[in-house]
Protein 1
Amino acid sequence: MITDAFDKSEVLFGPKDFYGEQKHLCDKCMVVFSEQIFEYMLETYTHEAAGIIRCCNGMTPVYIFEMEGMKIAGYLSHIGSALAGGDVIDVNWFTGASKFIMFGSAGSLDSDLTNGKFVIPTESYREEGLSYNYAPPADYIKIKNAKVVKTIFDELHLPNVTGKVWTTDAIYRETKAKLEARKAEGCVAVEMELAGVQAVCDFYGWDLYDFLVTGDVLDQAVYDVSGLADANHNMDKLYITIEIAKRI
């Protein structure tokens, strides 16, 4: 069973076997899911290459950016818990970063609560596979720095709501029954990475700071995808991330 996957025995191999010795270039990193935002970062900020996540189906470059007096790593993350969690491990190896700021879009499970507000997750439901390899089995994993993110958003006078979210690997298996069950437990949004990435960070003792913007709406009679493009690519998330980086 996947719930039996967690153990602390010796691993068979790690990033050193693929990439050599670890680098120590900076302590903070942006986890970006929008190609448009990432292209803007490359066009706007001075940067240098730190490494390349190598896969047989493509390469993911990692850079160190100069942003408002800070050196901060950044890369275009793969989507989905397993790949995004693996990316974080590789990026730590390339850069030494141990503070990861992750932002992206989510589906709203309660549009009355999330409309016009950023979502700051407090816990995530573990309907994915990666987290069970990095944390003991449980339905939810706590998002440890939620209070820190909430404080920063309030300092910046940004509208926000806190609540549980639902992490799933199966985008086309978000069913009515699951929506109702998660909403009854206090989930306000659904996304695809958080539970796994948080479990990885907890395992290695790293810090994760996460916020979301809801785009598609699931709690209406007709599925509404009209806000998804803006939730994915609006540049405000980048500027907020820079402000978070200044404060952590």
Note: The longest strand covers residues 207-217.
Protein 2
Amino acid sequence: MIYEYGFGFTVITKSDLILRDLDLLRKINEKTKCVVQITLTTYDEDLCGKIERNVSTTRERFEVLKRLRDVGIPTIVWLTPILPFINDTEDNIYGILDMCVEAKVYGVICFGMGLTLREGNREYFYEQLDRLFPQLKEKYIRTYGNKYVIESPDKNRLMKLFYDKCGKNGIIYNNERIFQYLSTFEEKNFAKQLNIWDLGMK
């Protein structure tokens, strides 16, 4: 239906199963604009297995980005969430951004180096910290208490690294500009409509 009627299309995923529809995505992108958005949270595959269970690994998602690059389908990466004391490291941010550079992504969406914790999901988050990272919950409680916005102590340095790396490699990092790009319809390969002036009528 999307292809038949010439609609633009975008999807957000953490799965390499998106490649099952690669031919259809290519056809949509030839007619209008098709953008695939993928979340990348951690460069470390072992850590990925802990905090992003039951989804494609970071490496598998990186392969998706490269396949899409090779067929000309634009991509956006969501760099989120960044978990203080877990994946808020220079190596992690550089590792993910190096992937983005190699895959020639259009842009990277980043809402800062941290996450938000509402009442209800905070309790679940702390349960998972106890299960996966013993003693880390106490550090969160000492550092953040019941704050809604949980920011990395290294947020300023990591954000500068993020801006510099994206800027030097032509990756869009302004969220507003990226969302405008996603919502702008583009029509390709359309025949120019003629009017009487194009026909040379006087």
Note: The first strand starts at residue 9 and ends at 13.
Protein 3
Amino acid sequence: MNKEELVKTIRTIPDYPKKGILFYDVTTLFKDPKALHEAGEVLYQMYRDKGITKVVGIESRGFILGAILAERLGAGFIMARKPGKLPAVTIEVSYEKEYGTDTIQIHKDAIGEEDVVLLHDDLLATGGTMKAACQMVQSMRPRKVYVNFLIELKALEGRKVFGNDVELDTVLAL
């Protein structure tokens, strides 16, 4: 299966969650065993030689391929979640979204200075959530931080919020 075939497994839903938005639904990719395997394999090939020790999945779709990738890389998996979802002591970052403020948290003891961290989420649109997650992880002073998305919506230019100091890669550009 190639990248064009992966794109074909993604359902598009017009006017969701509001009028004028074209929503890219990755649940159809996830339910297709060949597509799910291929997405995991592509990600593994991208990061297999980077020394990744922790993969951070962004709530909630980032948990799926993030966990698969962590297992394949022999790395630990960390969940970045909305407030109130993690049981131990957390650190958090709040950030502005187009319709208000949101917050993301991880456990305070999740990442150490010896770690090489890959942050993963399903979709790069405006980049706000991942930028906040990246700042939070960087505050823990790991050796290196990588950022990855399954899909990048090029027209929204979310990549620009990261500047040149973050190594950011995507699997599919739409």
Note: Helices lie at 3-8, 27-31, 33-47, 62-73, 128-138.
